[in-house]
Amino acid sequence: MAKFGLSQAVRRIEDPRLLQGRGRYTDDIAVAGQLHGYVLRSPHAHATILSIDTAEARALPGVHAVLTGQDWLDEGLGEIPCAIPMKNRDGSPRANTPRYGLATGKVRHVGDPVAFIVAESMGQARDAAEAVMIDYDILPACTELARATDPGQPQVWDTAPNNLCFDWETGDKAATDALFAQAAHVTKLEVVNNRVVVASMEGRAALAEYDAGAEKFTLHAGTQGSWLVKNLLASSVFHLPPEKFRVITPDVGGGFGMKLYLYAEYALCCWAARKLGRPVKWAAERMEAFQSDTQGRANLTLGEIALDADGKFLALRTRNIADMGGYLSTFAPYIPTGAGTKVLASVYGFQAIHAHVLGVLTNTVPVDAYRGAGRPESNYLVERLIDAAAQELKIDRIELRRRNMVPASAMPHRTPVGQNYDSGEFATVLDAALKKADWAGFEARRAEAAARGLQRGIGMAYYLEATGGDDSERAELRFAADGMVEVLVGTQSTGQGHETAYAMITSHQLGIPLEKIRVVQGDSDAIPTGGGTGGARSLYSEGTALLATATTVIEKGKQAAGEALEAAAADIEFAAGRFGIAGTDRGIGILELAAAQREKAAAGQSVTLLDAAEVAPIPAHTFPNGCHIAEVEVDPDTGHVTVARYIVVDDVGHALNPMIVRGQVHGGVAQGIGQAVMERTAYDPETGQLLSASLNDYALPRAGDLPDIEVELMEIPCETNPLGVKGAGEAGAVGSPPAIMNALVDALRSRGVTHLDMPATPEVIWKALAKAA
């Protein structure tokens, strides 16, 4: 293991603990006297609740409570909120979809929580759930996004006529329309960004306790940041001061955006714990997760690109219909609007852009952020459009991109949608990817595949990501009594390798061995504020805060070393973990100094301790970018797709730990390939039943479905944070879907197929080939 230093491929220090089964996830936690909660969910996508009879269920052995939506209202509890206010194009507010811990009046998707049963055992809770008698008046369901706003469709909410909950736009419409009017060529393309199920390895779970004496809740839950959940519980649901809540996030087995939010089950466990005076625990089963975790993507988008006679991009115009599901989730309206549209310019020199987004309600599971959160959808549209334009204009697809890329000499560059790119050498990255992929030699590989009866294609996509999240972050360093240095952070690892990255920064700045560093996260009492993890923000945000905190530790250390060595603080120097008097060989190591000062303080002496905490402003976010190149082979007799080769050249700025960065890219690419060719979330158009509600019916990529993913990193430092890093966590999922789909169209074009939508399953491809034939 490395002692000090950055830019090293250090193996993750958290992995031995996790691989040896010593991880501690929410469902691993048990406390004395805990009860078990079970959520009774609606079997209907749309129905009026006429009555709920809980008497028989309440009388069963072991049952402590059967709670309903009416009970929720009677106790004055508030909403599970959508935290994004929004104005429509005409200035009016978006529609609201009031959502409580349990359904009141109507259910709006299969899986909508209707009752919460709490019992001594899960078996008793299940038995009681079967005894709850609910009289539903089943209503027609609206499940098809493309038809949801048509006249006569079932109305999900009366307050959102024609199922339209917001009508939003950004950009300069007049300038965009004027450029389209003078364009030499316009390419139009409608694309589907298919709905995906997150399917994190660890399902959601919660364990709530209530201290009646202190009137305080403690919630253990797998989140992407304890503070958002804490604040929404306090302000929106219970109408209490935030200090009445402690949220503890232990190890988390995957989040991908889905675990950011306050869910009904977390509030239900807290509520029941207070009512019953005993801890209450709930954990989702896999089918329950499919029906209650937020889902991702679910967009239908029409894109138009205007070009001049020289093939230069003039303007981009988009109209996106975004599925919100049955309720507006915490950040849902922001994903296709503010998050998605800010990358529409990508790496290209558009003069004007106009984006129009319609938020549409359907009787389906709510949709919110999923790895990339709006940016994959926009990049997908742009990269598919460019390939289509190249075909129509008979211009090489690489050349068309190259002549429209913003040059490095133009940095910093402001886009038509108001983003300020601080750095980027897009053409350099493109050339490196083409060389690594041997793009020039592809036709020989195509011919070899044809000799085997297969259609081989090559596709590329250049992506640009815009990271996001809170505009500040906190870090704290404590020199603990056991000789360890505790690094308290406001982000939350869900598998990314944060413990290693933060330990590396601390080690580098303070000269402390990695094995002496312990990262602490997720406890909202121990760590007063935090921005959580989302938008690929963690390293540059928390890293900036760690640098500021380490600087304070060094300054305090100079004062403390002066006290210990009987010298003036101004004469103390610090290097490689050691404080020393300038010009002498007298000095003391930082860990030794911290221990000595702590002992003096314990003995009642007034001394300077080294512990420090800082909140750092994050004035700007980052723009990771890169080029993905995919080669696929298609069996024309069956439609089966093999991803034969996959190349990524990424600019994520300074790669603090290249091994971790490559791992993050691998995971994102796997998810993107899954979306492109496998993952189909299917709802019955008549009943609204989720037909792909288990891993028997929903295809996720396995190791055998993926090629070796070759990742090369080009370090073009970010200019807006002191580490020079750019967020890498979401990048793989942004570039992979368009690279795969462009490769598939290239493979099948000779057989007359010019367009495919995701997921390009064997059935979809076989039908496209048959139709073309």
Overview of the structural elements:
There is one protein chain. Helix 9 (335-341) crosses helix 10, helix 14 (498-510) runs parallel beside helix 15 (538-565) and helix 17 (658-677) crosses helix 18 (731-748). The chain has 19 helices and 28 strands. The longest helix has 28 residues, at 538-565. The mean pLDDT is 97. The chain is globular. A hairpin with a 5-residue loop joins strand 23 (578-581) and strand 24. The protein is of the alpha+beta class and 773 residues long. The strands form 7 sheets. The chain has a 7-stranded mixed beta sheet with strand order 3-5-1-12-9-10-11, sandwiched between helices. It has a 5-stranded mixed beta sheet with strand order 7-15-14-13-8, with helices on both faces.
Instruction: Name the poorly predicted regions.
Output: none
Count of distinct strands: 28
SSE-based structural type: alpha+beta
Taking the alpha carbons of the first and last residues, their distance comes to: 59 Å
Number of helices: 19
Proportion of residues in β-strands: 15-25%
Helix content: 25-40%
Gyration radius, in Å: 28 Å
Q: Name the shape in a single word.
A: globular
**Main sheet: strands, sense, barrel:** 7 strands, mixed
Strand order of the largest sheet: 3-5-1-12-9-10-11
Mean pLDDT: 97
Keywords:
7-stranded mixed β-sheet, 773 residues, 5-stranded mixed β-sheet, 29% helix, alpha+beta
Quick structural summary:
This protein has 773 residues and is of the alpha+beta class.
Topology:
Layout: H1 15-19, E1 35-41, E2 47-53, H2 55-58, E3 63-68, H3 69-74, E4 106-107, E5 113-119, H4 122-131, E6 133-138, E7 164-171, H5 173-181, E8 185-193, E9 205-211, E10 216-221, H6 226-238, E11 245-248, H7 264-276, E12 280-283, H8 286-292, E13 299-307, E14 313-325, H9 335-341, E15 352-361, H10 375-393, H11 397-404, E16 413-414, E17 420-421, H12 426-437, H13 442-451, E18 455-464, E19 472-479, E20 485-489, H14 498-510, E21 517-520, H15 538-565, E22 572-575, E23 578-581, E24 587-589, H16 590-602, E25 612-617, E26 625-634, E27 641-651, H17 658-677, E28 709-713, H18 731-748, H19 762-772
Parallel strand pairs: 1-12, 10-11, 14-15, 20-21, 27-28
Antiparallel strand pairs: 1-5, 2-4, 2-6, 3-5, 7-15, 8-13, 9-10, 9-12, 13-14, 16-17, 18-26, 19-20, 19-25, 22-23, 23-24, 26-27
Helix pairs in contact: 9-10, 10-18, 14-15, 15-16, 17-18
